[in-house]
Amino acid sequence: xxxxxDFVVGAxxxxxxxxxxxxxxxxxxxxxxxxxxxxxxKIIAGGLIVSALGIILEGIRDIRSxxxxxxxxxxxxxxxxxxxxxxxxxxxAGFALLLxxxxxxxxxxxxxxxxxxxxxxxxxLAGIMALSAPVVLHYIFYSLMRVVLPWxxxxxxxx
Length: 159
Known about the structure:
The protein has five helices and no strands. By secondary structure, the chain is an all-alpha fold.
């Protein structure tokens, strides 16, 4: 990418993150907990800011190192990006449909397995992510934040 395109993408992400932080300020506080519903939008916004700065810095580094945006292969990259976008949208929709039926653990594992493969990860990495991430997320939501996640088909094994 060119520096200009990287700067625009980075600036849009930073603006989105600032809007998220500003919007989260109005969320009501919960007295029983040291954090409120504004915590996760702020964490996501922080990740967006870090990602945006990374995109901008990578564009600057590419210009300084002499790597200029060449048009060779641009059509292939655009097609892959479009397919990745469609795949992620389909995964989000599939997760929303499968969550009530299969439960969080199975639906998250299937979505993660597919997402890692869509972005070029191998089967071993996809399997590790699909098996470990739902367990870690369950611990965070259920044990730390006391948010009940649907068990679905694993309800007989719920703890």
